[in-house]
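Example record

One chain of 98 residues, shown exactly as stored in the release files.
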Amino acid sequence: MIRKQSDPKAKQTKITFVLTDYEDVGRVSVVGDFNGWTPERHKFVRRRNRTRSASVKLPAGHRFSFRYLAEGGHWFNDEAADGWEPNGYGSDNCVVLT
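Predicted structure tokens for this chain:
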């Protein structure tokens, strides 16, 4: 799941990436072109409601590619993404629009 919270005054959108408890693949980070594809920069944090989430503030009106990276080098995508695009490694990246 992906939640978006727009802040027109700051010209930003807060993107919250959410994983439910059944998606238990160990530690997970969201990586993308907004953080230089750096693992563990935006780690998912466990919440009381049995979800995990990670948030980033991004400039409004842009398009960003991302994926999730779990322990052991396991990459996966979010079905709630705004779109997908080939990544040159034989799979797709997710796309989020701000």
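Notes: The beta strands are 2-7, 12-20, 28-32, 45-46, 51-59, 63-70, 74-76, 83-86, 92-97.
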